[in-house]
Amino acid sequence: MSSARDRLEEEINKIGVTAISTGLGVARNTIYNWLAKANVPLNYLVALKGFGADVHYIVSGERSTTSLSSDEQELLELFKTAPLAVKAAVLGALTAGQDAKGGADISVTGVGNRVAGRDYREKE
């Protein structure tokens, strides 16, 4: 099993030291010190969640099943506050191309079983 220090390093590397240092307003060396000592101030550990770090994983070693990336969180928040028409359009766009559930069966019968679309003319 990996140590809390290893898990912290894994999550920080996933996000990027520069992104975290810029976002939190701390020096990159500060983050490297956290990694060297496996000692992150609690307020910064909580703030890492906002960058998409799985804090539950860092602390316990178990991946959070409800962990969302920052773009997924943003999408969810925008969807929650969107008007109903926008929600319907988003769902329509996201489900486009998927097989319809309970769709109608199509049966073609007759002599020759030919199927034609628009402007079809049979040669005589």
How would the blueprint of this fold be written?
Layout: H1 4-15, H2 17-24, H3 28-37, H4 42-49, H5 55-60, H6 70-81, H7 84-95
Helix pairs in contact: 2-3
What characteristics describe this protein?
124 residues, mainly alpha, single chain, 0% strand, 7 helices, XRE family transcriptional regulator, elongated
Concise summary:
This is XRE family transcriptional regulator. With 124 residues, the chain is an all-alpha fold.
Task: Give a description of the structure.
This is XRE family transcriptional regulator. This protein is mainly alpha-helical and 124 residues long. It has a domain at 4-60. Helix content is 55%, strand content 0%.
| Rg (CA only) | 26 Å
Q: What pattern of helices and strands is seen along the backbone?
A: HHHHHHH
Number of β-strand runs: 0
Number of helices: 7
Profile the largest sheet. Answer: none
Regions with little confidence, pLDDT below 50 for 5+ residues: none
Mean model confidence by pLDDT:
83
Helix content: 40-55%
- Measure the end-to-end span: 77 Å
> Structural class per helix/strand content?
mainly alpha
Estimate the strand proportion. Answer: under 5%
Overall shape: it is elongated
Protein name: XRE family transcriptional regulator
Organism: Nitrincola iocasae
